[in-house]
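ESCALATION

Customer reports they have been waiting on this structure for their group meeting. Please prioritize. Original submission:
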Amino acid sequence: MNKDTKNFLYKLLQTPSPTGFEAPIQKVVKNRMKQYSKSIESDLHGNLIVGLNTKASKRVMLAGHCDQIGFMIRYIDKNGFLYVDPLGGIDPGVVPGSLVVIHSEKGPIQGVFGRKPIHMQSPDERNRMKLELKKMWIDIGAKDRKEAEKKVQVGDPVTYKPVITELGSDLIAAPGLDDRVGLFVVMEALRLCARSKLNVALYSVSTVQEEVGLRGATTSGFAVDPEVGIGVDVTFASDNPGKSSEQEVEVALGKGPGIYTGPNVNNVVEKMLIASAKKAKVPYQRIPSSRLLGNDANALQVTRNGVAAASVAIPNRYMHTTVEVCSLKDLENSAKLLAAFIKSIGARTSFIPK
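Update from on-call: job pushed to the front of the queue and completed.
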């Protein structure tokens, strides 16, 4: 991955975007993509729609959601400690002891999540280890509520501190790889297509509020009205001791993007993605899913009168923790795969299932 591309990825990872508060990261995407796109539009929901070759009648939409899980301050007690509600799917097991940032109107405020020390826990508390978010708090160093309210207020969003750690020569760990890496891939795919003659209009969309119900893909998909819609998101890597069973689908970091198959996937698009991967010499992993996917492809498939939907998946270890892990090679290969797929579409290509 070249320096310029890696800098864009790292800028995405270092920009807070808790679900419902995505405006800062959309500015980063817009600033990067204005040199490669034909059009860039924001909608009332907060989605950022980046277009290329927009006069073509056949439209393809790539969706990568920019929002991350986080928290929202709901109460400040008399001693200045902050209590929060979740924004998206929070794992209480990784919350205690984590570093956080409160995104207040006065700027970022550093904090830490606390809970009762093990020395003060009853034997029952120690043995059962039932972790509840409502029993944890954020400490920002305020002496009381009055001092805390000078810095933060109820309703302020909170995210894990955006620390990026490089593991070896290819892996990175950080909070919010879900789904900044998918966002990065859809924008990189458009960049790779920018100088090519396309038969389709390509829209790479930075969607909002995926973590609370695929909301951004629903509204932007309606606006773009694509014939083909591909959701790019992370998927669970099984190449670690956390694998749930021997019968779990095998997905490994560094072995390429995953291509889903199942009822949420148009079989013509699926076959074309596989053919494109082979032609571009991109490694890939097939991922079966008998259920509807929990990503933007789910919403795109049933937009308007139906869309030829598919999903490209980036292997991710430790999802929804502060140390999600992905492979840089997988990100590059995912973008190459999508660019090859886009370029393979002809003006008369039919995506009606066969």
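Sent to customer with the following note: The chain is about 25% helix and 25% strand.
Escalation resolved.
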